[in-house]
């Protein structure tokens, strides 16, 4: 008997899906039976991934700070696949810079992409999710939504804000059958973390964790798939940490 994927029959919209952790979400969602519209500003990489995955996947150019791009992305899901059941707010940016050296423009850019972008996604997607009979929103936050780090003031501020946004949205949208949860990755090996340029000795840092290594994007995707699926039907406002034990205490 052929097994049924955990997301069989669902239609999902994933932001920041052209590479890294977002691309892993897209691949796994399709493998789990979902049809996926995904967006990014990296058009060449996005089109290549869509071509690789075939008819169950459609790429759109999507700047999450633009309301018109959000409207077009949600409309694409409904046009190509007839409905929208899941939103994954994955798009985000990270810049390592101490407060004294960071410009207001850099701070604002991070907050606009990481927080306003997710807020616009919830606002735009919620009516489509409601029309489909309910659904799931998964916001990709970070362990930096629980702790701060030198050089990451804007990023941490944005990820703390995303926790609050998740909980408020969970309260507002529960009556419509829409669940809203957040996932909090730790040190995950992606192009974004590789380019952060923190100056931290990664080998020493990760050697001190209970699980002493970098995390892989697929390990975060497992949590995202669970929250998007019907298996998480009684979870809303939940925070799922995927961090190798980073938040267990001092010593890392």
Q: CATH homologous superfamily, by name?
A: NAD(P)-binding Rossmann-like Domain
Principal-axes shape call: globular
Measured as a percent range, the helix fraction is 40-55%
CATH class equals: Alpha Beta
Mind telling me which CATH architecture this is? 3-Layer(aba) Sandwich
Low-confidence stretches: none
- Provide the structure class: alpha/beta
Strands, count: 7
Largest sheet entry: 7 strands, parallel
Number of helices: 8
Mean pLDDT metric: 94
Give the end-to-end Cα distance, rounded to a whole number of Å.
46 Å
Strand order of the largest sheet: 3-2-1-4-5-6-7
Residue fraction in strands: 5-15%
Helix/strand order, N-terminal first: EHEHEHEHEHEHHHE
CATH topology assignment: Rossmann fold
Q: How many domains comprise the coordinates?
A: 1
User: Which radius of gyration do the C-alpha atoms yield?
Assistant: 17 Å
Structure description:
With 252 residues, the protein is an alpha/beta fold. It has one domain: Rossmann fold (3-Layer(aba) Sandwich). Helices cover 43% and strands 15% of the residues. It is built from eight helices and seven strands. The chain has helices at residues 20-31, 43-53, 67-81, 104-131, 153-173, 191-194, 202-207, 217-228; strands at residues 11-14, 35-40, 57-61, 86-89, 135-140, 178-185, 239-242. It has a seven-stranded parallel sheet, with helices on both faces. Strand 2, helix 2 (43-53) and strand 3 (57-61) form a beta-alpha-beta unit. The longest helix is centred in the middle third of the chain and has 28 residues, at 104-131. It starts with 10 loop residues before the first strand and ends in a 10-residue tail after the last strand. The mean pLDDT is 94.
